[in-house]
Amino acid sequence: MNNKKNIAIYLVSLNSDLERRNNLAKQFPNFFGNMIHIEAVDGREMDAKSYFNKVLPNFQENNRLMSPAELGCTLSHIQALESFLKTDNKHALIIEDDILGSDKDIENIFNLISSLDQYALLICGGQEGTRSTRYVVGKEINNDGLWKISSFSYPYILRTCCYVVTRASAEQILNRQKEMLVLADDWSYFFKDTISHIFYSGHLSHPVDLSNSHIEIDRKNFKQKSVLKNALSFLFLKRAVKRMYRELGLVVNKFFGFKRLF
Fold this sequence. Notes:
About 40% of the residues lie in helices and about 15% in strands. By secondary structure, it is α/β, with parallel strands linked by helices.
């Protein structure tokens, strides 16, 4: 923890993932000892009634059923944010146990925090291997790799493996989660059409190989396909329309000076 700058580091990790935490201790020898362990919720062990009570509102609203591992991730990050707001710290760096980086990377992240206002969220990397990075555009704030992301790109910033919240942005996330429980990385739902801003710096990274990812394994096991449903919902047409919207959005944002980050 960096008390001088009022920053705490919260590590979201299942108790059973000791090997992952040991690996983090090697990557971050100076910071690991001060990381606050948030015991992650394993949604796969939740009873059926509790699981469906939590995920049904989002399913009814968005026709997307959160997997048990995704629900566990969401509940874990809510715990981290709530723990942060119980302190006097002004900022929190929240990480998951599969990130890649070094002590120097965390120092660089801490140095960027002075450039953020009280409503900011800073995504600290972790976009490796995602399909949506083509649509992430922003404006460079300084020469230290800090970008202010266009609101157009909020839906295309993924993962919760490493991010910094202020007290105001943490409260914003929790308030939206109270309205309806959604994926922990639904940044667009949390911040679009608000006074909050999303920033990006690529100091930490995420493994490209997802074979050991609890969420990815659970998604593969959980995913169900319905040919009839796809046909009735004009799936391919909807995809084409969404693609056209994204490409048009890129053109408009480039016109206003935004640049692709990846």
